[in-house]
Amino acid sequence: MGQESTATSAQQARAGSRWDTVPPGRRLLAVAHNVTAATRLLDLLRVVGGDRRVATSFTSPGSSAFPDGLTEFFDARGIVHLPWADAVAQRFDAAISTSRGGELHALQAALIYTPHGAGFNKTLPSESAHRIPGPGAFGLTRDWLVHDGAVVPSVLLVSHHEQIDRLRLDCPEAVPRAVVAGDPCADQLAAARPFRAAYRAALGVPDGVALVVVSSTWGPASLLGAAPQVVERAVAELPVDEYRVLLAVHPNVWHRHSPWQVRSWLAPLLDAGLLLPEPSTEDWKCALIAADCLLGDHGSLTAYGSWMRLPTLLGAFDKASVAPGSPMETLGRVLPRFAADLPLAGQLRRAAADVLRLAEAAEASCVTSEPGGAAAVLRQVVYRTLGLDEPAGSATVPVPALPSSHNAAAPAPRPYHAAQLVHAVRETGNRIRVRRYAHPARGPHIPADAVLVADASEPNPSVANNAEILIASPPAGHSTAPPQTAWALDLLTRHPGCRAAAAPGRPGAWCVWARTGRNHVRELHATTDPDGSTPALPSMIAAAALLAWLDAVDTSEHPQIEVSAGPALTARLTIDVTSTSFDLPPH
């Protein structure tokens, strides 16, 4: 009875029995150490998709420092996973692991090792006391590949020939088992490039607006751990009508600290418009495909971005975590560093213009030696290990699915306008350039004469009392009438530091009550083209442009101005110069 209790009916069913609808011809074990490794595993297992001869089981050795989230990951995808003790007690025809660690040598299967990121670039101390870590890369050294004098994997897949050279130095006995297979993730990124516009639209990035991807690996020396001000600078300093900022955070960060905690830490930036893809999705791939530039660190996204020739700045870089002689070590020398004393937009423009450095970084990344061929090599290796003929047809990688939400972590909508800093300046003639900054905190590289624009009902007194323009709250339905002059005069009386109050009227029309003296107010009316040939302007842009017009021009001139706010928004405003003036009561 004791022997029978060691194998439950569920375990017997997984091993194959008369109760199976599809009896397994070959059994494949997928070994996932954590969510990061599991995500890459699912990419790789597509090569056996559709083949009824192969039954796949999942397990985890329980050795990762980041185990949280893995059970939920499996459950969300309908994956039944074996306890590790059951997995090592059963025989499998092949096993595939995208990470190292744990008692992988105990598996009764021909074991295939693959990377779980862009090659082998990091060092990591061995988890077992009897192993002495060397200076080489995690996954390529003897302490990760050999147990009791024997090489553990039957096949070691590498993505680039340079990894064979390092393997020859750090674990020469494993070289005969190494196969250069390319990188399936890189192939996905390349295959999806023709659909870049679709990914940008799904992420909510308008045409002409630059998407800045900020990526952070895990650990205290990562960008998010060591230089969170880089993310804050990107959100605060880049005009919202010209840039979108997306933060791609390594799954180990999400699952070490919890998704709630990550969102809580980033709450002010999410309020200001930061895009934050959910963990355990392909959205980081979508972001790289859609990106115009990258702020990275020593993580895999920096390697992939460099390979894609994305203009890249290093916001953080931990040389101690990077394997000597690895491509990432070279990228640490080649890529420019983020400079805290310089405006970020200018740094991004210079990185984009440096085509020689872009080419050098792409070559140094060494992401793949088999571009477009990873699926074919992987399928060949897996089926040879399983002892099966490959299915008919070519092996391909699917492009990443479009994001289901452009920002699932965004806070719920609020019934008032979020405060922004707005800089409006007359450039030439009747043209006024407006730039909006999403974060109301003034930074050193935001124009000093930018004005704080807030909702007239802003609940934060420090924001409302320091606003130079106050905007009427969005109407709660069509029955709410636009604010009248009495509303504006009362508002300006209660806020003596406010320069103007503004409210939309009918569609395409605005009214601004601008203070022209301490107690003197001028009422201005403006409309866009009545034929609808120009786009609607957000109230903050219209109000700031009208105030700039009032400050900068002789109002006897023909009162038509062209307002430009970013590459996707230009509109003509016609101003009614037959305005009315009012006196405020002394304050």
The end-to-end distance, rounded to whole angstroms, is 92 Å
Structural class: alpha/beta
The number of distinct β-strands equals 22
Helix content: 25-40%
- Read across the widest sheet, the strand sequence of neighbours is 14-15-21-22-20-19-18-17-16
Commentary on this structure:
With 587 residues, the chain is α/β, with parallel strands linked by helices. It has 23 helices and 22 strands. The chain has a 9-stranded mixed β-barrel with strand order 14-15-21-22-20-19-18-17-16. A 7-stranded parallel beta sheet has the order 3-2-1-4-5-8-9, sandwiched between helices. Helix 8 (184-192) packs across helix 15 (283-290). The chain is elongated and about 90 Å long.
Summary tags:
587 residues, alpha/beta, disordered N terminus
